[in-house]
Design brief:
By secondary structure, the protein is α/β, with parallel strands linked by helices. It is built from 12 helices and 11 strands. The protein has an 8-stranded mixed β-sheet, with helices on both faces. It has a 3-stranded mixed β-sheet with strand order 3-2-4, with no helix packed on it. α11 packs parallel to α12. The C terminus is likely disordered.
């Protein structure tokens, strides 16, 4: 049984290593492959991860391990490893694995406890992928937007209209924002326009307060340390969060959404949105969310429309889709990376039901 448990956990590390390599984190790709070997050899990585082999893939045990170690680095408790982490001013190099393993070995029990914390990246880059959908709802409805985010974490993507987006000769958003996306779209760009946001609300099973030091540390720890652009965007978004209040309630998606959709909001377009969240929900909860949206959609009017905007994995790609009521029209708006840009926006004429 022990051999099989090690095999399962080692495979989880290797799969995540492949994703990190494809998504631009060579440091994590190397460390995770060595971690997989260490698990199979019964080393300290195995001591941290043992017992987690029964967790579903959506538990993302490898990401939890890496985020937990990164947390120690950001706290200044692993200076030798920090020398290899760009997020702490270091540079990846020979010896990174040896220092990583030493940190794991010295903090086994603490790391085992930190694995209970769910990954909370609150990836700000997803705002760039969702942007075109928000603009489309605002333009088609002609109404202020009421934003409801499922799995909102710290609510940073509820602040999408306070960021700046630029691509070739196209731009949208706050010109002086500390969060700037350059070269967002690969080819076509969405039609811009003015957007008014009337309300920003979200839910999460374990919401994070981005205005606290603990909240900032947790969010930064789950960003891959050699992806400095993502880290800089996150730090910029944290500064915006100190200026704009967002309410994120501790609640599961289905129960919270049901209450929100029962509240009538004539004169506003309600936009329910989420990004890389559905995979974390139980099947029953996913079905309830869909049923609630369809029921609310049936009651939608031109003066109180409902939109469902999502960024979720579809096989090997990530799709941005929009379903809107009245009418229930379903459109594939864009293809993107899981962390956001670059975004392949579809021309308006291509935005038919797909």
């Amino acid at each position: 049984m022990t051999t099989e448990s090690r095999r399962v956990l080692a495979e989880r590390c290797r799969v995540q290593a492949g994703w990190c390599e494809r998504l631009g984190s060579p440091l994590y790709a190397v460390l995770l492959r060595r971690a997989a070997d260490d698990v199979e050899a019964g080393g300290p990585t195995w001591s941290v991860l043992r017992g987690r082999e029964e967790a579903p893939e959506e538990f993302y045990v490898a990401l939890r391990l890496m985020g937990s170690v990164h947390r120690l680095v950001l706290q200044g408790r692993a200076p030798a490893l920090a020398a290899h982490y760009p997020s702490a001013g270091g540079s990846p190099g020979e010896g990174a694995w040896d220092e990583f393993r030493a940190v794991v070995d010295a903090n086994i029990e603490e790391l085992r406890g930190l694995l209970d914390l769910p990954p909370q990246t609150n990836e700000v880059g997803r705002s760039a992928a969702l942007l075109g959908g928000f603009l489309l709802v605002a333009r088609e409805s002609g109404l202020p937007l009421r934003l409801l985010e499922l799995g909102a974490s710290a609510g940073l993507n509820l602040l999408w209209d306070r960021y700046r987006y630029e691509s070739a000769d196209w731009s949208w958003g706050e010109p002086t924002s500390p969060v700037r996306f350059l070269g967002v779209f690969e080819d076509a760009t969405p039609e811009g326009g003015d957007v008014a946001v009337g309300e920003r609300r979200g839910c999460d099973l374990a919401p994070i307060d981005p205005t606290t030091e603990e909240g900032r540390l947790t969010l930064l720890s789950y960003v891959w340390p050699d992806q400095i652009e993502r880290i800089e965007r996150l730090r910029g978004a944290l500064s915006v969060a100190r200026e704009v209040a967002v309410r994120v309630e501790r609640a599961d998606a289905a129960s919270w959404l049901g209450g929100e959709l029962r509240r009538q909001h004539p004169g506003e377009a309600t936009v329910v949105f989420h990004s890389v969240v559905l995979g974390y929900l139980e099947e029953r909860s996913r079905r309830e969310v869909v049923a609630m949206l369809e029921e609310a959609g049936e009651a939608a009017t031109a003066d109180a429309p409902i939109a469902w905007l999502s960024l979720e994995r579809a096989g090997d790609v990530f799709e941005v889709r929009l379903r809107s009521w009245p009418g229930g029209r379903d459109r594939l708006l864009a293809l993107t990376a899981p962390h956001g840009p670059p975004v392949r926006w579809r021309e308006p004429d291509d935005q038919s039901a797909t």
